[in-house]
Amino acid sequence: MKLTNLFKSLESKLRPGHISNEDELRHALNQASERGLFEESERDMIQSVFDLGDTLVREIMVPRIDMVWIEGDKTLRQGLSLALRSGFTRIPVIEDNLDNVIGIAYVKDLARRVHERHETEQTEKVSQHLRKATFVPENKTAIELLKEMQRDQIHMAIVVDEYGGTAGLITIEDILEEIVGEIADEYDDDDEEIEWLDENSARVSARLNVEDFAEAFKVEMSEADREDVDSVGGLMAKSLGRVPIPGSTISVAGIKLTAERPVGRRHRIATILATRITGSSEAEEVVREQ
């Protein structure tokens, strides 16, 4: 049944003096649901809208460690390459460090410039083609931010902590998913944690525990490598100093790790190709690459 039927059925109860607070409105909605005036999924969606008033931005943002970003002095070609590999159409641009976000690069802006003047892909910098970044405090409520994003037609905002540092980023989709649920859960897949391709290489889940990874490949990992990480994906992120994207490569304990398939709306890496380094020449070719 359409949601308009619900509001019509509650019209008399919503007159001044009948409902004085949110709890009474929630109760009215539950009663309407019990009488079969609308489906449970529709009731849950409305309840989720109420919950946004208690949900803080920091609870649903993309955390700092999962952000994909680019330095402002990179060329347009490098910017487009990162966008194509990561799958994102809007990328925060930094200067010096992640706590200094100077704007947002839109792929369509970079692509348009390169299309109009092909030579600019090598001669112009990403920082020359920025859009203004919007900054929001991490303790703002999601419902407040949603209203602001709709009013100002903002798609993405940089979340800052109490000291002004970058805590993460948030998009309007992140907020809407709190209402309608996740469009696709990248963790609900049926991939095996380890799929051996031959005796020296395997495709592993980015969520594979680092201890299980070391045991499977029969390698010893240093304390420094294992410190503060639980998964192979986390190991790559720590070594790279940023979230891995398809093609990112590192070597650890004689194993070359290459990020492969991204999944979900946030494009997190799902699988990593692990290959044993068998020769000195091959080892020299392995570099940490984003």
**Strand proportion:** 15-25%
Order of helices and strands: HHHHEEHEEHHEHEEHEEHHHEEEEEH
Report how far apart the termini are.
50 Å
- Domains, number: 3
Strand order of the largest sheet: 8-9-14-11-10
The number of helices is 13
- Would you tell me which CATH topology of the largest domain applies? CBS-domain
Q: What is the tally of beta strands? A: 14
Mean pLDDT: 82
- What percentage of residues falls in helices of 4 or more residues? 25-40%
Going by CATH, the architecture of the largest domain would be Roll
Q: Please give the CATH class of the largest domain.
A: Alpha Beta
Instruction: Describe the main β-sheet briefly.
Output: 5 strands, antiparallel
Question: Structural class from helices and strands?
Answer: alpha+beta
CATH superfamily of the largest domain: CBS-domain
Rg to the nearest angstrom? 24 Å
Shape descriptor: globular
Low-pLDDT segments: 6-17, 281-288
Task: Give an overview of the whole structure.
The structure is a single chain. The protein has three domains: 49 residues, no CATH class; 123 residues, CBS-domain, CATH 3.10.580.10; 92 residues, Uridine Diphospho-n-acetylenolpyruvylglucosamine Reductase, domain 3, CATH 3.30.465.10. Helices cover 37% and strands 22% of the residues. It contains 13 helices and 14 strands. The chain is globular, with a radius of gyration of 24 Å. The C terminus is likely disordered.
